[in-house]
Amino acid sequence: MKAAFSFGSPYPGTSFIHRLDPRAKLLFGCIYMGIILAAQDFAQLGVIAAFGVLMYAVSRIPVGNALKSLAPLLVIALLAAVLNLFTVQTGSLLVDVGFIHITTGGARSCAFIACRITLMMLGMSLITMTTMTLDLTEGIEKILGHFKRFGMPAHEIGMIFGIALRFLPQFATEFVLIRQAQISRGADLAGSPVKGVRMVSSLLIPLFTSVFRHAETLSAAMDARCYHGADGRTEMHPLSYSRRDALALACLIALGIAIGAMNVLR
Fold this sequence. Notes:
Layout: H1 22-38, H2 42-59, H3 63-70, H4 74-87, E1 93-97, E2 100-103, H5 104-129, H6 133-144, H7 154-184, H8 193-199, H9 201-224, H10 243-264
Antiparallel strand pairs: 1-2
Helix pairs in contact: 1-5, 1-6, 1-10, 2-5, 2-10, 4-5, 6-7, 7-9
């Protein structure tokens, strides 16, 4: 059975973006999110969206896979958008029904926040889909390694991140399997919201049981292999920056300059 969603699941390929250094991808992801936060109107978000579409085209990732990786995370964008819809009360009044007051400013803020968060998630999804989990783990470890002198456990943080990212698709798939199993046993999970809340235990309890079972299996496997952290650990393929990373950085800087210029000319 296919995974419930592909966020955290690498898409195989040899494109320009696939071959970038994982440390560079992580840093570029942070810069990309900063550029999105600097955008102040829909025109700027449109430029960023065009840049994102170009990056997905360069990576040769099908549109269906990109949307599939994002679908379960759209709830975050939806919640943030709805909060802005009801809390921002600027502009002229559009809806005034009881305690519900929706203004033009709230509607604009709702759409803007939804687009901004969606673009952020698409950017981070591109990183996870073009980079192996082990490479991301090593990249995080190398980046945080500069802070080891301050007592930061860089290797452990990288390992935790890698394990969490690796098991996201698996747990999502298990959730779907558990739900289908409960429905086949006669559980009514499609009723009213109140009934749905009562039935949630029939999904969460087996799911958490599975989570703890996987955790025990993983810890036993690591112990059997004498895992003891980064002490004495060697690298088969040491990370190294290349001209591709410099070119990607130049493209990102150009995007940042374009957004900055659009802000100045507003």
